[in-house]
Amino acid sequence: MTTTHADYRLSQLDELEAESIHVFREVAAEFEKPVLMFSGGKDSIVMLRLAEKAFFPAKIPFPVLQVDTGVDFPEVLVTRDNWVNRLGVRMVIASIDDAIAAGVVVDDGKTSRNRLQIGTLLHVVEEEGFTALFGGGRRDEEKARAKERVYSHRDEFGQWDPKMQRPELWSLYNGRIHGGEHMRIFPLSNWTELDIWDYVHREEIEIPSIYLSHQRRVIRRDGMLLSESEHVQPKANETVEELTVRFRTVGDMTQTGCVESTASTTAQIIEEIAIARVTERGATRGDDRFSDSAMEDRKKEGYF
Fold first, then answer.
1. How many angstroms from the chain centroid is the CA of residue 94?
2. What domains are there in the chain, each with its CATH number?
3. 118-135: per-residue pLDDT in tens?
4. Which terminus of the chain has fewer CB atoms gathered within 10 Å of its CB, N or C?
């Protein structure tokens, strides 16, 4: 008689999924008013999929929040709306244009829309009374994010002090906050870009079409390929080229570059990422190139 033994070991992807779902459930049980920051990019889409699984068959018990830069890629906004409509979640949109008009932030013509997101975000957090904000940051993306905890405390001014982080031994999280403070929660902290794409492929998740290769008119600037648009036009000595490209990350189109690629399926993207030696932010985000500590400086002020 042959005895069979069930194998209860989880794959790496299943372990990551289980850890993230645990974080979602902990936060929903512990915090009065959580919200999920949802840009329509790959990381926030994976977060929303995990939140859907965490509370299924019930609906997701918190709204989603997008900080609208006014210069987002149209393809990303279409995908964002598809997800929100399918899941039936409430969406809160914090518009930078509205924040400028209301005097919440000041557009001096020099500050990037990316940095103007800080004041816009902190204003809506205070206005709505959010106590926990889920973000799609991963430790492999950038060195400032590499040293941030899953539960990341923000003081009454929305600021982060990397020297005052709370220990998370044995995945035990301290969510205590005082009035006016809040937590940033990062369920994808231990995921990598490759893990994200493996999960997108396995779950057959809908993503913006610009993540896949396509023809696009681009401008070479500061070592990046920026998409030609009404917001990005060639300067003196710059020319417009039409190349086969895709985006590894999406954000403010004036600061987000694409890469030359022929990867037109998620399987091909996985093969491409597996041999990549530069993170997506390091390769394609102009806002992280202002200085070696650009991300950490913004996070201390209240950035995602």
1. 16
2. 12-194+294-301 (3.40.50.620), 208-288 (no CATH)
3. 899 999 999 999 999 999
4. N
